Amino acid sequence: MRAIVLLSGGIDSPVAAFMMAKAGAEIIALHMDGTPYFESNARAEKLVARLREATGQDIPLFVAPHGSANLSEIAKTTIPNIRCVLCKRFMMRTAEALATREKCNAIIMGDSLGQVASQTLRNMRVEQQAVKMPIIRPLVGIDKEEIIRIARKIGTYELSIAGAGPCGIVPSKPSTGASLKKILDAEAEMNVRGMIEKAMASITTQ
């Protein structure tokens, strides 16, 4: 299996990538650059370098301009509490577009059930409906302390927590049970295809 991992720069997604690589998947990393709302490219580069050592794979790293292509439009939504779900849907769409281009057949995510607002079962269901490609969530039922233990073991934990900062468009009370209708209504006000095309047109390889 050849799969795209959405590598956030946080603790969970590098562990998800490592676990799937050890299970036999060929990994390609995609980092969504959140500039100007958040910046984590340097961490992503260091994490991929460490994952290459830990897995023995020459993992390529792609970086997409998520901030300028997607977040700038998501920030305009008149329903602020669904921004995080919209963000995940656009990340997944970009990952699916890259996966298609790179002949991958799945998307790997570091979601752990209930850990943050966008990772409730209801929100994950709404997010997944944005794409047709299979989504693999190897950490979905794993306790956070176990994820941290694995991250320490493979040498990604300290890299993940270095200089981590919040996203600038996260609402004060993000929805834990987003309505699909509200999501679709919000996306109807956006040029969804154009946003993904913009992200893909400026994607780079590190």
Model description:
The chain has 206 residues and is an alpha/beta fold. It has one domain (2-205): 3-Layer(aba) Sandwich (Rossmann fold). It is 47% helix and 11% strand. The chain is built from nine helices and six strands. It has helices spanning 12-22, 41-55, 66-74, 83-101, 121-128, 144-154, 157-161, 180-188, 192-201, and strands at 2-6, 26-32, 61-64, 106-108, 135-136, 204-205. Strands 5-4-1-2-3-6 form a six-stranded mixed beta sheet, sandwiched between helices. The mean pLDDT is 93.
Quick take:
With 206 residues, the chain is an alpha/beta fold.
Task: State the main characteristics.
206 residues, Rossmann fold, globular, 6-stranded mixed sheet, alpha/beta
N-to-C SSE series? EHEHEHHEHEHHHHE
Number of domains: 1
> What class do helices, strands and sheet pairing give?
alpha/beta
Beta-strand level of the residues, as a percent range? 5-15%
The radius of gyration over CA amounts to 16 Å
For the terminal residues, how far apart are their CA atoms?
A: 22 Å
Shape assignment: globular
CATH-defined superfamily: HUPs
What is the CATH level 1 assignment?
A: Alpha Beta
Helix coverage percent: 40-55%
Structural topology:
Layout: E1 2-6, H1 12-22, E2 26-32, H2 41-55, E3 61-64, H3 66-74, H4 83-101, E4 106-108, H5 121-128, E5 135-136, H6 144-154, H7 157-161, H8 180-188, H9 192-201, E6 204-205
Parallel strand pairs: 1-2, 1-4, 2-3, 4-5
Antiparallel strand pairs: 3-6
Helix pairs in contact: 1-2, 1-6, 3-4, 3-9, 4-5, 4-9
